[in-house]
Amino acid sequence: MKYRREFFRQLIHASGIIFIIISTYLNSLQMLILSVLAAAAGEVIFRIDRIHYIPLLSGILRGCRRNTSERGFIYYFLGMAVTYAIFGFSMDIANGAILILTLGDSFSTIIGREYGKHRLPFNRDKSIEGSLAFAFSGFIGALFIIGPLPALTGAVTGALVEAYTPVEDNLTIPVFAGAAILLSGHLMGAP
């Protein structure tokens, strides 16, 4: 049952791809505003849910909660907002970093919890299998938006950040992945 709940939580997390689709119609400022509004709406719903049951939403919220973080979904939207604020000059970089977060974090949790046998020496809560799943899925997802080297460096950086960040990696992963994408693009001679 616990695995099923986490799988559902990660499925909701992966639905963040909807933001990538929406971004094809909006600019970075509009995406920044949308992300902040989603975080604010999430906080309001979270607070109301603590007092009153909200049909449909309460079930989703309660299914997505972890013992370590009740507001992970809010940090997810804030991580998107920060990413659009920093890398908004290039929607490809911003969206590549967000895809790395969205897919990488979801697959690392699912694979790591189900198949993770080899613990990372510096973080016993994480597994090598989960980190490899993060890097692979983040890389594949980012390839739809950016080139192979930026996708690879962004995904590997995201996996390392996820492995080292103790909590709320939804804020740190897309920022560091975006920086790696930008840096690798510059090293390749991209403008």
Q: In a nutshell, what does this entry contain?
A:
With 191 residues, this protein is mainly α. The chain is built from nine helices and two strands; from the N terminus they run ααααααββααα.
How would you portray this structure in words?
The chain crosses the membrane at residues 7-26, 69-87, 93-111, 132-151, 171-190. This is SEC59/DGK1/VTE5 family protein. One of its GO terms (molecular function) is ATP-dependent diacylglycerol kinase activity. This protein is mostly helical and 191 residues long. It has one domain (2-187). Helix content is 75%, strand content 4%. It contains 9 helices and 2 strands; from the N terminus they run ααααααββααα. The protein has a two-stranded antiparallel sheet with strand order 1-2. It is globular. The N and C termini lie far apart (49 Å).
> Mean pLDDT, as a whole number?
88
- Counted by DSSP, the helix tally is 9
Q: What class do helices, strands and sheet pairing give?
A: mainly alpha
Number of strands: 2
Strand content: under 5%
The dominant shape is globular
- N-to-C order of helices and strands: HHHHHHEEHHH
Using the CA coordinates, give the radius of gyration: 16 Å
Count of the domains = 1
Strand order in the largest sheet: 1-2
Distance between the termini: 49 Å
Low-confidence runs (pLDDT<50, min 5 residues)? none
Helix content: over 70%
The major beta sheet can be summarized as: 2 strands, antiparallel
Protein name: SEC59/DGK1/VTE5 family protein
Keywords: Membrane, Transmembrane, Transmembrane helix
InterPro entries: Dgk1-like
GO molecular function, one term: ATP-dependent diacylglycerol kinase activity
